Amino acid sequence: MENKMETRKLSVYYKNFQALYSVDLPIQKNAVTALIGPSGCGKSTFLRALNRMNEVIEGTRVEGEVLLDGKNIYDPRVDPVALRKKVGMVFQKPNPFPMSIFDNVAYGPRIHGIKKKTDLEQIVHKSLAAAALWDEVKDRLYKSALGLSGGQQQRLVIARVLAVEPEVILMDEPASALDPISTAKLEDLIHQLKQNYTIVIVTHNMQQAARVSDYTGFFLNGELIEYNTTTAIFTAPREKRTEDYITGRFG
Fold first, then answer.
1. Residue burial 186-223, b: 16+ Cβ < 10 Å; e: rest
2. In which residue ranges of the chain is pLDDT below 50?
3. Which residues have C-beta within 8 Å of that of residue 76, sequence separation ≥ 6?
4. pLDDT (tens digit, 9 = 90+) per residue, 64-80?
5. Which of 49, 59, 110, 166 could disulfide-link 88, Cβ–Cβ 3.0 to 4.6 Å?
6. Which CATH class is domain 3-93+167-246?
7. CB-based burial label for 140 (10 Å; 0-12, 13-18, 19+)
8. HEC string of the chain?
9. Domains of the chain, residue spans
10. Is 58 exposed, middle or buried (0-12, 13-18, 19+ CB in 10 A)?
11. How far apart are CA 167 and CA 146, in angstroms?
């Protein structure tokens, strides 16, 4: 397998607090990598480091390297805005903009200079279809996105990310606010998306990690304790601490 991204001795500090300790982790191309571990273990910090979202938090310092196609994204010559177009983010709670479904998806392309209506229509159609939402919303494109269900809103947010043609999609507990039916639809979508995108997902749900991911990294106290194929992690954990977490003793 080919690495799409890779971290080398990645450490992250919030002022005097060290949140990550020298993490080396490969992220395979066109695969789903799940990050698991108890609350506060550093997995969301790691995820945000992959597109420099930590920089919006005052006092954050990053050491080490994060490579995208072999190039360090923390190189001073790298434009964070251009980087986040390549490495998109889906957050825990669906966050559609208070505007129409169409305008939500067209927002990113417009910012990047696409103004022609027919071009935008094609992008919106393609993105909503890729997010498995087109058939549900095609007759209400110009109605408020806030009228969608929670599961539909999360898929709309994914469509909004897809509209700017990313290469990597980061997901921070994307199903935590969804009901079981919406969660199942989201997991099906993740399986479809990995054909064309590299996906990294943070989840507290061990069963979800087992269902959707190809590789799993287990974090504890800011350290990467174990990384392997998901099958290996869940069938033969090498570390007692991993086993304790999977059996629920860490909560």
1. bbebbeebbeebbbbbbbeebebbbbbbbbbbbbbebe
2. 241, 249-251
3. none
4. 999 999 999 999 999 99
5. 166
6. alpha beta
7. middle
8. CCEEEEEEEEEEEECCEEEEEEEEEEEECCCEEEEECCCCCCHHHHHHHCCCHHHHCCCEEEEEEEEECCEECCCCCCCHHHHHHHEEEECCCCCCCCCEHHHHHHHHHHHCCCCCHHHHHHHHHHHHHHCCCHHHHCCCCCCEHHHCCHHHHHHHHHHHHHCCCCCEEEEECCCCCCCHHHHHHHHHHHHHHCCCCEEEEECCCHHHHHHHCCEEEEEECCEEEEEEEHHHHHHCCCCHHHHHHHCCCCC
9. 3-93+167-246
10. exposed
11. 27
State the Cα–Cα distance between residues 134 and 137, nearest whole angstrom.
5
Give pLDDT, residue 204: 87
Q: How far is CA 215 from the centre of its chain?
A: 14
Q: Quick one: pLDDT at residue 238? A: 59
Q: What is the pLDDT of residue 250?
A: 45
Which pLDDT value is given to residue 197?
96
